[in-house]
Amino acid sequence: MTYLVGIDLGTTNTVLAFSNSGGKAGNIELFSIAQLVAPGEVAGAPLLPSMRYHPADGELAPGELQLPWAQDDPAGVAQVALGRLARVLGAATPGRLVASAKSWLSHPGVDRMAPILPWGAESDVAKVSPVAASASYLAHLRAAWNTRFPKQPLERQQIVLTVPASFDEGARALTLEAARLAGLPTVRLLEEPQAALYDWLYRHRTTLAQDLGGARLVLVADVGGGTTDFSLVKVELQDGEPSPTLTRIGVGNHLILGGDNMDLALAHLIESRMAEQSGEARTRLSAARLAQLTERCRAAKEQLLAPDAPDSVTVTLLGAGSRLIGGSRKADLRRDDIERIVLDGFLPLNEAQEDAKRARAGIVEFGLPYASDPAITRHLAGFLRQHARAAREALGLPDDGGLPVPDTLLLNGGVFRGAALAQRLAGALAGWRGAPLRVLHNENPDVAVARGGVAYSLARQGLAPSIESGAARSYYLLLDGEAKGDSLRAVCLLPRGTQAAQEVPLAGRSFGLRVGRPVRFHLVSTVADAAPPQAGDLVDLDPSDVVRLPAISTVLRAAPGAAARAEIPVQLVTALSEVGSLDVHCVAEDGSGQRWQLAFQLRDSGDEEGATPEAETLPPQLDAAIDRIERVFGARSRQVDVKEVRQLRASLEYLLGARERWDTPLLRRLFDALMARAKGRRRSAEHERAWLNLAGYCLRPGFGHALDEWRMEQLWSMFENGVQYHKDSQVRAEWWTLWRRVAGGLATQAQLRLLDDFAFNLQADESERGRRPVTLVDGSEDDMLRVGASLERIPSSYKAEIGEWLLEQIMAIPTAAKLDAKTTARYARYLWALGRVGARQSFQSSAHEVAPLEVAEQWLGRLMQLDWRKVEPAGFAAAHIARMTGDRSRDIGEPVREEVLRRLASSGAPASWSTMVREVVELDQATESRMLGEALPPGLKLLR
What is the pLDDT of residue 768? Predict the structure, then answer.
């Protein structure tokens, strides 16, 4: 016997529904999930709060976390509470609750496989990755199910796992990885808005023609705890058919916007009221305490949205530690606050049908990049405008320039449990349409998506109404060399609407790929194309309309017994897999049937914007430039004058123009030429200097272009051998300049290896230096400071140690009424390094790897002891250590911020320094170049 199972892995709750169809439509049941509801007390409930609590040592007695089954945590944490008990404990104790893991799965600004949650927690709190946290909820479901149905284990059932329609391929792949870690290797993905509609269709399957009579276009608005999802479904009733045909014709872009944002906005209001009452208006709560207050505001919001709501609810935030009761703070949340903030702020009527406002920088809180405009109705107007052509066709409306508004609405998500919120959205749409909408009754928004997953499986068996869908968006391959102005030149790989398991070859495009060498392609997706293109069509895309996907890559290996070939002509073939993910293969064109799957790279996917293996516009003099490199470093024995070696850079600039204007594709082609001739650098000290200088310059900053990860692996393989001419001071300097330039492309372990040499060169005593191995290259103080400060991926605890050492050196510099050049230069070196090590916003690493907040504030306090008028780099360092990110776990407190701003103003610092401390902004080019040590290649922009 096989069960049909639907799982809603929600931001707020996880739900499982099931049915034993037996070949016919039957009841869909909710699974009662056994979970801890109090220490040592287990009970069943249909909702499993998607939360984890990591208790302190000794906080809970042995046995108080015991469940009816024995199970290891997929995240490897020895003691953990999940579900309702986690919510209860997390509300009482800040900093130990993992929540909203699902929102993190779609956040490319962090390493989603790294242990970063609870975000901003103290160092003694166990941390887990967003993927592992998601896996733990699924593993709990599996254990609970297998305890109840030991002969029908969950992993052997037909499972549908729902995801937001707006999840990109990276987030979908991470969701599948979480399922695999939970012991559920075979699941099918289904979009949540579709699932909600499937549930409604199944519940009305016997009266569907009547219940949807006259409907032509259904809008599914799914607003949950962490995301807002829109989908449009066309309804067609054919003559003679008993039931209408439904076709999904549009989905929205990803929005981290939902009930969590509403709760957070209320928490900010209550925080300010508590501060006013206590007379501490300048004091902000820590990230952990704000999370605790947000949970209290969620409960208060639900009370105030209930039909019998009181006029106000008192929100209490308990004190911390020994002041648990005496240090508690209270403030009232009123019904008019809900109307002003939640209704008018998140669901304004928006009579003008305005699109969402684009801010200069998005809102960041708890580390998540929330939508910068909180108005759901403005995002909805933009969504309808984006799909206006298809919507008009479905509604039978002429193209009069007006906004086509659906005639039918299905609301889903926990947010719409509040009747006032549901009525407001329906009212806004009715106002735009000029007539009321038909609102489809959603019996229970909390469980509709899980139930819809089962109904979808029944529909696949022909036992329930179905929705025609296919690919939700169109996928494109970027062709960087064919860009036109600000648009992106791309070729369509998979048109929107393509059905699952239908392979689409990219006709007319052939790629010559080298055997044994990795290849990487850069893809984007969009829902904005008015009419889906055909595969192979060349289009110009608006960068604001696309979502950049993680790079896809593979290494081509020749088939056993095949003739040796240096290059294989291949064609790209794309398909929407049966499980709902994007599959891309390289297929050999020789008819051999060889194919290689391209896998999405899910770690640090945001680092590279970049090129593809074809169509790069390169200068016609490139071949001549490579000939110059061959002449100096090539394998053939040539008598090359020392002067020619020294002038290689100048000769390359003569052919290619000033090197400051060399763009990234050109730089990487030059690096490849240098790397292929790396052995030639050992011919003389002049050869080694020239090679190291050019190689580092051409590969900087170590990422940002196709195959840079592979290039870095090739370069790193040289590190342990050091330099040939280790007694030449300029060779040594060029060696460390190279590694400083490309440090951003090194993995954590490689950066830690560089850190060993940094520490030795700056701190080893004479006896230790006498035992220095020849391969450990000596480095000057300036070289080491620049290298050490560029190691952004090392753990934050190491950064704290480095920063403390730097401050000791800074404070030991003798003061004088007037600084000489040597002292000024020493201050500049150490303060630049401190600013880079303590920066709140890193250039290359994940946000959780910055130096600890409390340490950064201590550093700022010590920098205040310097005269910033006299020591100008002190203000520069302070500005970066105090830079505003919007993330409370990284941002310094307001009193310290105000003092930094005061000192910057009084010292005459550039206005841009104060701006970066006062608000969330991108760095200007001059500040970025100073912080990096030199300018980035033209056209390359850091994403963080």
Answer: 79
Instruction: From 876, 927, 934, select the one nearest 904 (Cα to Cα).
Output: 876
Interhelix angle 911-918/872-881, rounded to 10 degrees, is 20
Q: Contact 691/629 with Cβ under 8 angstroms?
A: no
Give the Cα separation of 607 and 944 in Å (integer).
9
Q: Which residues contact 369 (CB under 8 A, 6 or more apart)?
A: 107, 109, 256, 362, 363
Closest by alpha carbon to 346, among 268, 261, 437, 224? Answer: 261
The secondary structure of 843-858, three-state, reads: CCCCHHHCCCHHHHHH
Beta bridge partners of 44: 34
Helix, strand, or coil (residue 901): helix
Tell me the torsion sign for CA atoms 661, 667, 670, 674: positive
Structure letter (DSSP) for residue 255: B
Are 296 and 315 in contact, with CB atoms under 8 Å apart?
yes
Report the distance separating Cα 700 and Cα 663, nearest Å.
11
The residues, ordered by sequence, that sit 6+ positions from 129 with a Cβ below 8 Å of its Cβ are 75, 111, 112, 113, 114, 115, 116, 117
582-588/567-576 β-pairing: antiparallel
Question: Which residue type occupies 58?
Answer: G
Strand partners, 600: 552
Q: Are 259 and 298 in contact (CB under 8 A)?
A: yes
**CA separation for the pair 789, 803 (Å, rounded):** 9
Say if strands 228-236 and 245-251 run parallel, antiparallel, or are unpaired.
Answer: antiparallel
Question: Using CA atoms, how far apart are residues 640 and 644, in angstroms rounded to an integer?
Answer: 7
What pLDDT score was predicted for residue 579? 66
Tokens read off for 349? 């009527």
Tens of pLDDT, residue by residue over 512-566, are: 776 666 667 778 888 876 677 888 888 888 887 888 877 776 666 666 655 555 6
Q: Are 825 and 864 in contact (CB under 8 A)?
A: no
pLDDT reading at 360 higher than 50: no
Q: Which helix H or strand E contains 827, and what residues bound it?
A: helix 821-837
Taking CA atoms, 942 is separated from 49, 484, 665, 845, 915, in Å, by 37, 21, 16, 11, 19
Measure the CA angle with vertex 39, ends 36 and 40; round to 5°: 75
| CA 141 to chain centroid | 26
pLDDT the model gives residue 554: 67
Does residue 902 sit in helix, strand or coil? helix
Reported as a pLDDT band with limits 50, 70 and 90, residue 365 is: low
Contacts of 748 (CB under 8 A, 6+ apart): 793, 794, 795
Write phi, then psi, for 937 (nearest 5 degrees). Answer: -60, 150
In b/e form, how buried is each residue of 319-341, taking b as 16+ CB within 10 angstroms? ebeeeeeeeebebebebebbeeb
Q: What is the pLDDT averaged over residues 274-296?
A: 80
Strand partners, 505: 573
CA atoms within 13 A on the CB side of 422: 21
| Averaged pLDDT of the chain | 86
Can you tell me the distance from the alpha carbon of 220 to that of 196, in angstroms, rounded to the nearest whole number?
8
Give the span between the Cα atoms of 631 and 646, in whole angstroms: 13
DSSP string, 98-167: E--HHHHHT-TTS-TTS--BSTT--TTS--B-HHHHHHHHHHHHHHHHHHH-TTS-GGGSEEEEEE-TT-
Quickly tell me which residue has 């509040």 as its tokens.
418
Interatomic CA distance for residues 805 and 109, integer angstroms: 29
What pLDDT does residue 496 have? 86
Question: Cα separation of 338 and 418, whole Å?
Answer: 11
pLDDT at 482: 44
Longest CA pairwise span in the chain (Å): 96
Neighbours of 264 (CB within 10 A): 22
| CA distance linking residue 167 with residue 645, whole number of Å | 52
